[in-house]
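Researcher: Here's the sequence for the chain we discussed earlier.
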Amino acid sequence: MTRLGGRRLRRPSALLACAALVATVAVGSLVLAVHDWGGSTAAGAPKPSATATLSSRSVLFGDTVEARLELVLPRRFAAIAFQGTPNFSPFRVVSSHVDRAELGGGFERISLSYGLACLSRHCLGTGAATRVQFSPTSVSIPGGRLHAVWPPLLEVGRAQGVSQPVTDGLDSVSATFSGLRPRRDAEEALIAAGLSLLVLLAAWLLLRRRVRRRLALAAQQGSLLQALLVRVEAGLPEDVLYRQRHALDALAVELRHLRINGSLAVDAERLAWAPEQPDPQAIRALCAQIRRTVKA
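Model: Thanks. This is the structure I predict for it:
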């Protein structure tokens, strides 16, 4: 301390201490800013970047190729990577996948994978292959902008021998594929079902007619047999002996025709041609036996 005019003056040590404290705070803030990408990066630390790659530089028409966008961003900006989708026209995205990995220093690697396929006519050219160039992808982050340039992709046609587009008018006709014609198949099935029903109906009518004819013939034969039985029974009196014998003979012929118990036909014929007068009891017994056989 020194005296000046009766007053004591302190050395400026307090001012020096305050200045040192302020300098320390400023240096610490600068170090933190550099550590967390506040404007420049320290040596060896990750840097923000964007890289675009393709799984293959050529692809057959209709096949799938994978496009990968790899971003290195500060962790607090990672959400920016999931905003929107790169422009892959004329291809369309058929699948997507995300991989994330910590890099340290507050940075993160984000890999966005897209499955791409093109079935559009824009992917077909007049030559054997078509060169496709996707638009560059830009990612905006606070304090800067990242750009990723996609490598060119070669779309190879499957018809290597076709040098010019086919213009045979097939595009104006609805395409039909074997096994995928439900309407035509349905019509053919209906026609086949209709024909089958007609055939079945004709067969049923023919069978019905034959059954009716057989039933009518059987009924006619049955009525003839009954009439002969009545004639035999009616001829029992002695004054109509000739009619009785004639009826017995006709009865024997009918029994053989109907194939009803051959022994009955033999008995009827024996009674018809017996030298003596037929026994009325034997005739009645024969008629009764024939009726029982016919009913059975």
